[in-house]
């Protein structure tokens, strides 16, 4: 999917796909206020996928913003590539997570600007593995990103469920009062 604008829907994009690439797209003002159930982007499990089958999601050069209580990006893929995007909830935004990998997998988060609004109700900016492990390989590579916490109560830049693979975070700029809550092994 390239050069598309998804706006003012229940979900911007929600799909059960085996392999999906989205580039140069914009997602905004999606959801209808039912906390955490409608998202700008939600990529769910491919039916019948065994743990040996590849399931890839690539999001590049895109802009996701102003989701109404859901996530800016949520993916259950076993291989996720989130590269060079602007994932920013901005002034007045009410997104839950800006970026979520609920079942872990191998996730490359490279070169993004990820910003949490001051009016969000959820303190987590990036969440990895909150719903437990689904895939045999689990690793998060958080490299060359700018993470901005505008939440007055102080948010959480990265929340990782314990025992869910190696976390490598290198050369990221953390702006705001947020903290890292990583419970897994890794290099920080």
Sum up the structure in keywords.
188 residues; mainly beta; seven-stranded parallel beta sheet; 0% helix; globular
Short description:
The chain is mainly beta and 188 residues long. It has strands spanning 5-7, 13-16, 19-23, 26-28, 41-44, 56-60, 63-65, 73-75, 79-83, 86-88, 99-101, 106-110, 113-116, 124-128, 139-143, 146-149, 156-160, 166-170, 173-175, 179-182, 186-187.
Per DSSP E runs of 2 or more residues, the count of β-strands stands at: 21
H-E order: EEEEEEEEEEEEEEEEEEEEE
Q: What is the share of helical residues?
A: under 10%
Cross-sheet strand order for the largest sheet? 1-4-7-10-13-16-19
Average pLDDT: 88
Radius of gyration, rounded? 15 Å
How many helices? The count is: 0
Main beta sheet strand tally, sense and closure: 7 strands, parallel
Point out poorly predicted stretches.
184-188
Indicate the structural class: mainly beta
**Quick one: overall form?**
globular
**Ends distance:** 34 Å
Roughly what fraction of the amino acids lie in strands?
A: 35-45%
């Amino acid at each position: 999917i390239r050069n598309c604008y998804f706006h003012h829907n229940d979900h911007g994009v929600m799909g059960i796909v085996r392999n999906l690439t989205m580039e140069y797209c914009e997602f905004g003002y999606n959801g209808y206020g039912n906390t955490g159930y409608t998202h700008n982007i939600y990529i769910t499990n491919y039916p019948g996928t065994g743990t040996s089958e590849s399931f890839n999601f690539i999001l590049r050069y895109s802009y996701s913003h102003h989701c109404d209580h859901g996530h800016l990006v949520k993916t259950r893929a076993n291989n996720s590539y989130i590269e060079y995007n602007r994932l920013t909830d901005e002034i007045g935004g009410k997104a839950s997570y800006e970026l979520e990998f609920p079942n872990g997998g191998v996730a490359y988060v490279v070169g993004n600007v990820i910003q949490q609004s001051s009016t969000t109700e959820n303190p987590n900016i990036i969440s990895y593995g909150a719903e437990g492990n689904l895939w045999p390989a689990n690793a998060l590579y958080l490299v060359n990103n700018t993470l901005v916490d505008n939440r007055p109560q102080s948010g959480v830049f990265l929340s990782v469920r314990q025992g869910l693979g190696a976390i490598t975070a290198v050369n990221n700029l953390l702006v705001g009062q947020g903290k890292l809550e990583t419970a897994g092994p890794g290099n920080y």
